[in-house]
Structure formats: structure tokens, C-alpha cells
Design brief:
alpha+beta; 2 domains; 4-stranded antiparallel sheet; globular
Length: 443
């Protein structure tokens, strides 16, 4: 009994003295071993992510076309300190797709892929003549980004829209988990301040020919002609489905001349068939939904989004596609700040302006992921493949690592000396709710 009373205060003294970062114990001697937080030696950190988790695009552009190659990356720069500061001035951010310097001309080894057709037919399909290896831009239409360049400031984050990355690198290897490198430089001197890598996912596994006829995507258009009395096959020109069926994913604000959104048309048609989400949303090889806590072998999509029929019905009843998405608070009810309101997770922020994906990972790829490529920043800054939860990553004055282990070691949900000063909640002292309710309070 005496030994138990001595051990807990001893741990608390170590924490308050700043000797622990994150902690782990061994059963042999119960010795607490500090785990290094690499960010503690840095002056700046940069957090970067893809805004969707898995953009996908049509593999060919000579018949029916759903989506272009289009990848968007966000980044936030943080100057470590006490308190830390989100940096928006005095820096420039460069990006490049690692080992992937061109897109035009790739994909020709397969009869089901011909990426170059996107550029060959860009004017007919999208009304824009694009130079090879530059992309559409729905945010800044006059800027056509390539596979390397400079990110633009958008509010409190930096962004590059419409990077036309494809899932084949320069060595010819097909991989839907491409990698972007982001470098932060001092705007005056050009000196490098920080560097990181983020997954730039992209897949062409949206392959209608898989069900509608191998190598004959025209069968879809033929069916459309028969049912709707259109003349797509006779016309012999590529068809952008969103020309008639509006798609907010392409910046359109209405349902289009058909008065049926593309998402509703596709989901309602397939709802009565024996298809699953990975038949269209990539896919049986890509397996894009990869957050360990949220996915299953079939993607677990319907748990959050509902079935194809549910999705179609919600749109028919007035929901605009790409809005009214499932919210984290539907399951994570214990923290009010998790409710992002009308803002989707991918664009939401908390904790003094830090974007949710900056710490937790891209949508459909929240950390820990079953793809190691998604863990780069978590390992770079805190040495653990967990959502960024170490206070020392950003706060130079932090005395602890702030990861799950240290919370459990000091009482779990029970009130501790830490919560006296560091929780903003008046209804709970649960440190597991950090950092959403984490704040310094003068006592």
C-alpha cells in the first residue's frame, strides 16, 4: 500500500519537472522511458494534406467522361513557440510530386487508359485549352498548375488546386498513392524553413467498362441513347456527363439541363444492381478508404454515407451533392467542438485555426491508416503513427508529449493536476478530450 502511494506522486513530479515527453513502461522494471518528439528541435513545422483523401478520374476521354485528373493540396505553416503561431506572411511554399514529373503520354500501355486524351480534348470537354501536364482549376480558373510549382495563400492556409497527377510515376509503376513534397522558404532569403511530405492520392479505377463491356465504354452512351433518345454514339464526340447532369464536384451550382444531379443519376441507377461502392469509387486495387478505425474490407462506406439508394433519395429530396456530408460528431459525441456545423470535415478547423485534417489526416485516410505513406508527418514530428496529439509538436514550452500514453498513465478520465489548468470545459475534466478543449487557464 505504501509503495502505491509513493509511485503516483513520483510520476507527477517527473511530469511537472518536464522530464517526460511521451511515456511507455516495461513490465520488467516499470521504468518510464521518454520518447523523443522530433519537432521539439524545429523552429517551424508544415502540415500538408490532400483535401479529399482519394480523388479519382476517368481513364479515357474519348467517349463518356466523369472527372478530370484533379488533385488539391492544402498546407499550414506553424512557427513553434509559446504560444505557437500560424504563419501566413513572409514565406513561400513550393510543392512537387515526387518521381512524377509528367502526365501526358502515360497510360498508353493499357487499352483502358489514355490520359493524354484529357489534354487532346480539354477544350471540347471543359472549354479550356490546356498545355500538356497542366490542369483545370475550379478555384482560380486563370491559373493552370503543373506537377510542381508554388502554393497560394488562402485565408490561414496555403493551397494548390488542380494538380493533374496520375497514378503512374516516371518509372512506369502504377500506384494510386503518389507523394507530394512541400518546402517552406523564407520569402526574402529563400532559406528553407521546413519540409514535409503528404500523400497525393489519385486513381483511375473508375472503369465503366468493367461492367458495361470490356474496352467498349461506348456501350454506356449507347444505352443512354436508347433510353433517353440522345445521339451520343452517332455524334462520335466525347461527352462530359456533367454537361447535362450538374456536378458540384466540377464547380456547378445546379442540377443542369436534365434537372437531375450526376450523383443522383449514377447512384439511383446502380442502387438496384448488385454493385458495391468499390466497383466505382476506387476500387478493388486502390481500396481508397484506409483509416484503420473507420474502414472494412468493403470500405464501410454505407455506415457514414448510406446505401446508393439512400444517397440518391437524399438528393432527390433536396440535398445538394457534396454538401450535408456525414459529420464526425455523429459518432464522436463526447466533444462538442467536433461538430463542424455546415462545414465539412475537410474544410473545418479548431484549436485556434488549425485545420482538422492537419492533425487527423485527410478524409477517408484519418490516421492511423492502413497505408504507411499516410503516416509521414505523424512520424516526422512525434515519432508515432497517431493523429498529432503531442503538444510539443507546436508548443515549445510544453512539458509533456501529450499522447495517449501519458493521459492513461496519469489517471485516464480522472481529474489530475494537468486538468486544473489545461481544460476549458466546465462540465468535465477528461484529458482525453484534448486538444479540442485544451486551453491555458490562469488559476
Amino acid at each position: 500500500m505504501t509503495e502505491r502511494r509513493l509511485k503516483v506522486p513520483a510520476l507527477l513530479v517527473l511530469v511537472l519537472a518536464g522530464f517526460l515527453t511521451d511515456c511507455s513502461t516495461t513490465a520488467k522494471d516499470d521504468v518510464v522511458t521518454p520518447v523523443e518528439i522530433p519537432a521539439a528541435s524545429m523552429s517551424y513545422i508544415v502540415l500538408a494534406w490532400n483535401d479529399l483523401g482519394m480523388p479519382f478520374f476517368s481513364p479515357t476521354y474519348d467517349k463518356e467522361v466523369l472527372l478530370p485528373p484533379y488533385n488539391t493540396l492544402w498546407a499550414q505553416v506553424i512557427k513553434r513557440g509559446s504560444p505557437p503561431e500560424i504563419v501566413t506572411t513572409g514565406v513561400t511554399l513550393e510543392y512537387r510530386i515526387v518521381d512524377n514529373t509528367y502526365s501526358y503520354g502515360k497510360g498508353t500501355a493499357s487499352p483502358l487508359r489514355s490520359y493524354g486524351q484529357f489534354w487532346d480534348n480539354s477544350f471540347d470537354l471543359f472549354g479550356v485549352s490546356l498545355a500538356h501536364d497542366t490542369g483545370l482549376n475550379l478555384v482560380d480558373p486563370d491559373i493552370h498548375n503543373g506537377l510542381s510549382g508554388t502554393m497560394l495563400l488562402k485565408g490561414n492556409h496555403f493551397e494548390v488546386d488542380g494538380v493533374p497527377v496520375v497514378p503512374i510515376n516516371d518509372a512506369g509503376t502504377w500506384d494510386p498513392y503518389q507523394v507530394a513534397e512541400i518546402i517552406v522558404r523564407d520569402a526574402s532569403s529563400g532559406a528553407e524553413l521546413a519540409r514535409t511530405r503528404a500523400t497525393a492520392p489519385t486513381s483511375d479505377e473508375i472503369n465503366c467498362a468493367k461492367c458495361h463491356g470490356q474496352g467498349d465504354v461506348g456501350s454506356v452512351l449507347a444505352s443512354h441513347d436508347e433510353l433517353e433518345e440522345t445521339t451520343f454514339v452517332t455524334d462520335g464526340v466525347p461527352v462530359l456527363c456533367a454537361d447535362c447532369h450538374g456536378s458540384p464536384a466540377l464547380g456547378q451550382t445546379g442540377a443542369g439541363s436534365s434537372e437531375v444531379y450526376l450523383s443522383e443519376a449514377i447512384h439511383s441507377y446502380h442502387a438496384a444492381l448488385t454493385t458495391n461502392c468499390y466497383d466505382c469509387h476506387p476500387g478493388e486495387t486502390t481500396l481508397f478508404h484506409r483509416s484503420v478505425a473507420h474502414t472494412t474490407s468493403n470500405g464501410n462506406c454505407s455506415t457514414c454515407h448510406g446505401t446508393s439508394g439512400d444517397i440518391a433519395m437524399s438528393i432527390a429530396n433536396g440535398r445538394v451533392p457534396w454538401t450535408g456530408q456525414p459529420k464526425c460528431v455523429q459518432c464522436h459525441t463526447f466533444v462538442a467542438e467536433v461538430d463542424t456545423g455546415a462545414t465539412a470535415y475537410r474544410a473545418a478547423s479548431a484549436h485556434n485555426g488549425i485545420s482538422c485534417p492537419a492533425c487527423h489526416g485527410s478524409p477517408h485516410a484519418q490516421i492511423p491508416s492502413n497505408r504507411a505513406v499516410d503516416h509521414y508527418q505523424a512520424l516526422q514530428y512525434q515519432n508515432k503513427a497517431l493523429p498529432l496529439g503531442s503538444c510539443r509538436v507546436c508548443h515549445s514550452g510544453s512539458k509533456g508529449g501529450g499522447l495517449v500514453n501519458i493521459v492513461e498513465a496519469h489517471g485516464g478520465s480522472r481529474p489530475t493536476a494537468c486538468t486544473v489548468c489545461h481544460t476549458g470545459s466546465i462540465s468535465t475534466n477528461n484529458p482525453l478530450e484534448f486538444p479540442h478543449r485544451f486551453q491555458h487557464r490562469n488559476r
